[in-house]
Write a structure and sequence with these properties.
Layout lengths: L1 H20 L4 E2 H12 L5 H10 L4 E6 L15 E6 L6 E2 L2 E2 L3 H28 L44 H8 L5 H20 L21 H19 L3 H27 L3 E3 H11 L6 H14 L4 E6 L2 E6 L5 H17 L1
Antiparallel strand pairs: 1-3, 2-3, 4-5, 6-8, 7-8
Helix pairs in contact: 1-2, 1-4, 5-6, 8-9, 8-10, 8-11, 9-10
Length: 353
């Protein structure tokens, strides 16, 4: 739903930019029709309120009347919600403010950043409610907690929009009774009094629903387990999840490479057994491995794995530059089962960091 709102903001900005640059008054009615035509989704005033809540400095909102209109359902004397993009003093073309394409892109990025920050706030509250609580600095956060359901974050509360001046109007039976007392026949006055009384009783008798969550009962599977052991397990799990949420792209790539090495070790040995040579050109080995390994990879991606083999197991794989060529050498006498065990252990240790 946040992605939909981001796309709505982009559509609103596109339409508002065209109208603004033509010096037209941007009314909600014009924007609504344009957004619905572009997105094929309903666009309401509450969406404008949500946009204002996410990016308060995006638009100035006003209620104005005496705006020329070609709609039969809107009179010129009616108040209409208008939007005006907020621009800097230097954003002018031919002496008047201008909403350029680069500024539209900048505004879109700012809106997306604000949306992500809102999700981060919900994520921080989720982490604080865990047992034990977790705190992850925002500048180090690279992914959400595995149990954080990002698709169920609460809707953004719309900001209050300007409203047109309203004449006094009656909204309840009690108000109608107070306003019209003495102006109606006794029978009608009595009926309104009974209605007001019933409404008040219904409101007073409505039970209050408690929103406090019921305490979670201890699972029968955990009965007999010491509390100290449970706390140690939870603390270990929390450290593991915190490491997961703060990995950067380089660490994530290395973990992916390490995860493939155990299966790739057997393929690499089979290549050398089939070729019956102690050393092979690196590019030849990359090509043979790419043909044999089930996951499709380029020669460059395969070379990263081979160099990681040489880094982790220099006693099994060696890479040597000889003149203008690079060769890879493998010790075929080593037990490949033991090699796979060592690689699996390294991958698990890296995952736990």
């Amino acid at each position: 739903k946040y992605k939909v709102l981001a796309e709505m903001f982009r559509s609103v900005d596109t339409i508002a930019g065209m109208l603004f640059n033509r010096a037209e008054t941007i009314t909600f009615a014009k924007v609504k029709q344009g957004v619905q035509d572009m997105m094929r989704k309903q666009f309401e005033e509450r969406h404008v309120g949500q946009i204002k809540a996410v990016y308060p400095t995006s638009y100035r909102l006003r209620q104005e009347k005496n705006i020329p209109t070609f709609s039969s359902g809107v009179k010129k004397s009616d108040y209409q919600l208008t939007l005006e993009p907020v621009l800097g003093e230097d954003e002018k073309l031919c002496g008047r403010p201008h909403l350029s394409a680069s500024r539209l892109l900048e505004r879109r990025r700012e809106f997306n950043r604000s949306l992500v920050n809102i999700v981060k706030q919900h994520h921080a509250a989720f982490l604080a409610g865990l047992t034990p609580p977790m705190v992850v600095p925002e500048d180090k956060l690279t992914r959400w907690h595995p149990r954080f359901n990002v698709d169920e974050v609460p809707d953004i509360s719309p900001a209050e929009l300007p409203r047109p001046p309203q004449e006094e109007r009656v909204t309840t039976a009690q108000e109608l009774l107070s306003t019209a007392r003495g102006m109606m026949i006794p029978k009608m006055e009595k009926a309104l009094a009974n209605l007001a009384l019933r409404s008040a009783e219904a409101g007073a008798g409505e039970p209050m629903v408690s929103k406090a969550p019921s305490p979670a009962s201890t699972s029968s599977a955990l009965k007999g387990v010491s509390q100290e052991l449970l706390e140690r397990i939870r603390a270990k799990e929390a450290r593991k999840l915190q490491a997961l949420m703060t990995r950067d792209a380089g660490q994530e790539e290395r973990l992916t490479l390490l995860g493939r090495l155990p299966a790739m070790a057997r393929v690499l040995r089979n290549v050398f057994v089939a070729e019956k040579k102690p050393a092979l050109p690196l590019e030849v080995v990359c090509a043979r491995m790419a043909e044999s390994f089930p996951t499709q990879m380029t020669a460059g991606e395969m070379e990263k794995h081979l160099r990681l083999f040489a880094e982790l197991l220099p006693d099994w794989v060696g890479i040597h530059a000889i003149r203008t060529d690079t060769y890879i050498k493998l010790d075929k006498n080593k037990d490949v089962g033991l090699v796979v065990e060592r690689l699996t252990k390294v991958a698990k240790e890296a995952e736990a960091l």
